[in-house]
Design brief:
It catalyses: D-xylulose + ATP = D-xylulose 5-phosphate + ADP + H(+). The protein is an alpha/beta fold. It contains 15 helices and 23 strands. About 35% of the residues lie in helices and about 20% in strands. Strands 1, 2, 3, 5, 13, 14 and 15 form a 7-stranded mixed beta sheet that branches. Bound molecules: adenosine-5'-diphosphate and 5-O-phosphono-D-xylulose.
């Protein structure tokens, strides 16, 4: 008997990626891709165009489809369902002051307790405050607020459908409580100048959002990091480091987290559990920007970085090229420390870029451990994980075994797995991965010591350059 096919979509910052999988085994049978426009402010129609281009000719025989989308983006609609202004994306930092104000008005402890996270410029709630203050006439027209994946799901269903979301993506808004699974309308109204736009209905992990006009079942969808966790069939002890436009480090947990330092965001996952996560604004693009500066292709950049010794001859690169989110320095610029005539080589600079990018995530990993997350090994995914230099340096900087799962678009795979789950309407999602089964890259004792030194220098440079404490504060 021919089994059903399911499609998963990853509508992330730089592109839309599609996988079509066998619903029983997860085997990937077709893939597609289309680029998104540059910029941190994007018309949602561009995601729809990219969806259509990426799925062109791929959906024959597909019984269900799920969408994983970049988190946090603010999509505002008027009464007629028309977009009020281009969406502000997670990496748009114009709402930094609004974030600071909201933090001050309600207090860090309060935010952490209410929604599991502190509002930083990435979060939807801060973008709404920015809009209320800077575009009040447009804000008055907003009848509904959606996230990128909510909007795409709704567009797929047809505009008479009721907009839906899931608890994973909702947990990145700043007005949803992951622990109670309900919206905090009071926080939304507080941020948005008393306005109370409609929000999408939060449906369960295996619920059906509806059907496309062609009769394809559409699942709830979720945020891209939650979809990656679903695609990797993440279990406790496995921590993901994803190197896309953003760098993220996260793991699954049975309990909600509430980090009032703001380093760890206490998100929900796409299965009913939780997904504590730390996110940097600067990941794979640090590598592409540095290789462009050095005038070399990425393969040559890798060779340069691998030719330098660990520690980059004493160079420390704080790669805050697009500002930074963790640590919360939205206006920061990149800084290179420790130059002398002997160490100013392309090799050291390439390696310092890799080490600097990974050190930001190692600090996030430490914060997750402080929140009680078990870390047995790191699974390295995303575009940047294709770099040979990143693969070699990661075990040194993280100090734990690093596994590189077979190259695949795990966000799209997770969205497809959610679609298969909704199609089967089973209690548990289908098992697709036996085990990652790949030989971990184990750091030696000497690697761990070197990694510790590199990380210490990174934290000291942070303190020197940006006046922030190198060590987490004691309570
Ligand atoms: N071999 C490589 N070395 C370094 N960076 C790479 C490599 N291959 C792809 N990338 C980078 O990965 C990024 C895309 O990763 P991806 O996970 O698809 O991002 P996103 O999901 O944010 O759109 C791009 O910036 C791309 O240049
Ligand atoms: O803001 C976050 C996580 O909180 C980002 O991880 C976005 O979800 C964008 O993801 P990528 O496009 O980098 O995959």
């Amino acid at each position: 008997m021919k089994s059903d096919l399911v499609a998963g979509i990853d509508s992330s910052t730089q592109s839309t990626k599609v996988v079509v999988c066998d619903a029983d085994t997860g085997e990937i049978v077709r893939t597609g891709r289309a680029s998104h426009p540059e910029g941190t402010e994007v018309a949602p129609a561009a995601w729809w165009d990219a969806f259509r281009e990426a799925t062109d000719g791929l959906l024959d025989g597909v019984g269900a489809i799920g969408i994983g989308g970049q988190q946090h983006g603010m999509v505002t609609l008027d009464e007629a369902g028309e977009v009020v202004r281009p969406a502000l994306l997670w990496n748009d930092t114009r709402s930094a002051k609004a974030a600071e104000d909201l933090g001050g008005e309600l207090g860090a402890e309060n935010w952490a307790k209410s929604v599991g996270s502190l509002p930083v410029a990435s979060f939807t709630v801060t973008k709404l405050r920015w809009m209320a203050e800077n575009e009040p006439e447009l804000a008055d027209r907003v009848a509904r607020v959606l996230l990128p994946h909510d909007w795409l799901t709704w567009r797929l269903l047809g505009q008479d459908a009721e907009p839906v979301t899931d608890r994973g993506d909702a947990s990145g808004t700043g007005y949803f409580s992951p622990s109670t699974g309900t919206y905090r309308q009071d926080l939304l109204a507080h941020a948005f100048g008393g306005r109370t736009p409609e929000l999408p209905k939060v449906i369960g992990p295996a619920e059906t959002a509806g059907h496309t006009p062609d009769g394809i079942l559409v699942s709830a969808g979720t945020g891209d990091n939650m979809a990656a966790a679903l695609g990797l069939e993440l279990v406790p002890g496995d921590v993901v480091v994803s190197l896309g436009t953003s760098g993220t480090v996260f793991g699954v947990s049975e309990t909600a987290s509430a980090d009032s330092s703001g380093i760890v965001a206490g998100f929900a996952d796409a299965t009913g559990r939780f997904l504590p996560l730390a996110c940097t604004l600067n990941a794979a693009r640090v590598l592409t920007a540095t290789s462009a500066m050095l005038g070399v292709e990425l393969a040559e950049f890798d060779k340069l970085a691998l030719a330098a010794a660990p520690g980059s001859g004493g160079l420390t690169f704080l790669p805050y090229l697009d500002g930074e989110r963790t640590p919360n320095l939205p206006d920061a610029k990149g800084t290179l420390f420790g130059l002398n005539r002997a160490n100013m080589t392309p090799e050291n600079l390439a390696r310092a870029a890799v080490e600097g990018m990974l050190c930001g995530l190692a600090a996030g990993l430490d914060a997750l451990v402080e929140q009680g997350l078990e870390v047995r090994r790191v699974l390295l995914i995303g575009g940047g994980a294709q770099s040979a230099a990143v693969r070699a340096v990661a075990p040194i900087v993280f100090g734990v075994p690093v596994v590189i799962p077979e190259v695949a678009e795990y966000v799209a795979v997770g969205a497809a797995r959610q679609a298969a789950w909704a199609l089967a309407s089973s209690t548990e999602p289908p098992r697709w991965q036996e085990d990652h089964g790949y030989t971990p890259l184990e750091p030696t004792e000497a690697d761990r010591a070197e990694g510790h030194r590199i990380q210490q220098r990174h934290l000291e440079a942070r303190e020197l350059g940006h006046g922030i404490s190198a060590k987490p504060k004691e309570d």
